[in-house]
Amino acid sequence: MVATGVVRSSSMDSSGEDLRDRIIELLPRLRRFARSLARNAQDADDLVQITAERALAHAGQLRPDHSVAGWLFGIMRNAWIDEGRSRRRRESRLEPEELAERIGDPAAGADQELLCLQNVLARLPQEQRLAVALVLVEGFSYKEAASIMGVPVGTLTSRLARGREALQSMLSETSGALS
Amino acid sequence: MTLPDEVLMAYADDELDARTRAAVEAAMAADPEIARRIAQHKALRNRVHSAFDKVLDEPVPARLLQVVRSEPVASGTNKVVPLRRRPVRRWAWSQWTAVAASLIVGMIAGRLALVRWGTGPIVMRGGRVLASGALADALSHQLAADQSAAGPVRIGVSFRAKSGEYCRTFTLRQATALGGLACRAADGWQVRVLAGTESSGGAPGAYRQAASSMPPAVITAVGDLMTGEPLDARAEAAARGQNWQR
Predict the structure, then answer these.
(1) Which among A76, A172, B64, B241 has most CB atoms closer than 10 A?
(2) How confident is the model at residue A42 (pLDDT cuts 50, 70, 90)?
(3) What is the mean pLDDT of chain B?
């Protein structure tokens, strides 16, 4: 089963070794979250690396009542937004023809569905994409997701609703275009 | 009764309090359109979640583990550490080979309740991943030529690494079958590679040849690490006789 992310850090000592272990344990989930934000696996892992570096450099800011997972996802969210400006210039979105081509590539075969969803997520505005990634991909509660994004729950809810609606309509278009 | 879409979405996400939930359920019973919209929200949630869930099964790149292990930790609460904007290191293939000595793949941590402190076949200590319990026991004592098909661990090949230590591949029977590689270190068996095997889902006891079910990541690591030939039955028994010390 998928681990639900909230593990309190109260039992953690300050030696840093426990934090390292927690980060290592959360790496698969951090990679998953990064994959829903970044355009390709390489950029996603770069984002995970930046997150880990920042977390270790700022370990003192992790308060005992913080969830380590929530704290790390928050760091990744900030890192992603920081990187956003330069990234957005480089980034070109996959057009449906190209997507169809990639889907036809047997090497990408196993990940067709993932690729398709990454592509539609990439078209969402930043804040909607974060809301969708935190709640649908990572399974955070609205409250946890709002706290990671630093917004009230109501704001999270409306971003999530708009993101989902856009996602739904893009997905029905995509499946129409490819079938 | 009209319900805003946000409420239907929150119902699909199990975020409503009992009273609102009951109201939605009543509305759903009365109006198939509401039921359809809720089902659509749930389907989208499941679709997105299960697509990205596959990422959890991928091996974690060694460079990430290396960063987490080697970056200094700033633990002082008042210490202000400037945010460095440092280029991300991407490793060339040659460096990857050098890192093979500390390679771990596929932590799968969130996925299987496998990595635990102090319990289970694999434990983490100070950022190192060590075999424990039945796995450690099998690595130390089990011989490939003489093992029960029903045991929780199956030993594959044993060999001498270029750096001198003994290493052994193993298959671990969990809910999902796992294949891995462990090498003998001073403080126990260090798990270098761990990944899901092809044969997962097979009936217990229906083991194929160790090589055929071994994940490619393990086979690659064996190729990178091994010097000479794999140990034959006699050499394996002899190595066990000296407790896998070099």
Answers:
(1) A76
(2) confident
(3) 75
Task: Please check whether residue B40 touches A, CB under 8 A.
Answer: yes
CB contact under 8 A, B83 and A57: yes
Which residues of chain A does B124 touch, with a Cβ-Cβ cutoff of 8 Å?
A: 21, 24-25
CA A90 to chain centre: 19
The answer to whether the predicted template modeling score (pTM) of the entire model surpasses 0.95 is no
pLDDT at A88: 52
Q: What does the domain layout of chain B look like in residue ranges? A: 5-55, 58-68+92-241
Lowest mean per-residue pLDDT among B30-34, B59-63, B134-138, B225-229: B225-229
Q: Who's near B155: CB < 8 A, 6+ residues apart?
A: B138, B139, B142, B143, B144, B147, B168, B169, B170
Range with lowest mean pLDDT among A100-114, A157-171, B183-197: A100-114
Identify all chain B residues contacting A53, using CB atoms and an 8 Å cutoff: 67, 71, 84, 86
Distance between CA atoms of residues B105 and B221, nearest Å:
10
Nearest-by-Cβ selection for B107 from A28, A137, A160: A28
- Write the CA distances from B178 to A87, A115, B172, integer angstroms: 37, 26, 5
User: CA A25, CA B171: separation in Å to the nearest integer?
Assistant: 21
**A164 in contact with B at a CB cutoff of 8 Å?**
yes
Token couple for A4: 């639900």
Residue B77 reports pLDDT greater than 60? no
As a whole number of Å, the end-to-end CA separation of chain B is 77
B15 lies within 8 A of chain A by CB: yes
Q: Which domains does chain A have, with CATH numbers?
A: 7-91 (1.10.1740.10), 95-179 (1.10.10.10)
Given a cut of 60, whether residue B53 has pLDDT beyond it is yes
